[in-house]
Design goal:
Elements lengths: L9 H22 L3 H9 L5 H8 L4 E4 L6 E10 H4 L9 H13 L13 E10 L5 E8 L1
Antiparallel strand pairs: 1-2, 2-3, 3-4
């Protein structure tokens, strides 16, 4: 009676979609991070002080621990809102904010051409190296 009718194998159909979805999520999360953060994440346990100095230049502050065999380098950077959010995810409601920008420019609080000025943030990156001068940890903090 059921000749010619085959059961649809839904497992085989969903697997490629699940894989594509997972890869897309990873790609989006990586593209949302600042390049320095991706560089530090990928460099844990193998980047050396020399590698980082070549890429970023001389650190602003160097702290040598007297009790521990580790060194901390501190770099300070100012990042604009667009650098922190390269995909513009925070500006989804941009149309609504345009009216506020126009009002701000009328009272002298906005930038040129009726747009508001982009926010600037100060961050410091604290890089911790072991006694072999290899990057072991890092973190970003506001200045």
């Amino acid at each position: 009676m059921t000749r010619g009718i085959r059961k649809l194998n839904t497992n085989g159909w969903w697997r490629p979609i699940g894989t594509i979805f997972a890869v897309s999520l990873v790609a989006i999360s990586v593209s949302c991070t600042h390049w320095r953060e991706a560089y530090f994440d990928e460099g844990i346990d193998h980047l050396t002080q020399m590698d980082i100095r070549k890429k970023l230049g001389k650190p602003h502050i160097v702290k040598q621990s007297l009790l521990e065999p580790e060194t901390t380098w501190i770099y300070r950077y100012t990042l604009t809102e667009s650098e922190l959010d390269p995909l513009g995810m925070k500006s989804v409601s941009k149309g609504v904010s345009e009216m506020g920008n126009a009002a701000a420019s009328l009272i002298g609080k906005g930038g040129q051409n009726g747009t508001s000025r982009e926010a600037v943030y100060c961050f410091k990156y604290l890089l911790t190296f072991d006694e072999e001068q290899v990057l072991r940890a890092w973190k970003r903090e506001p200045c």
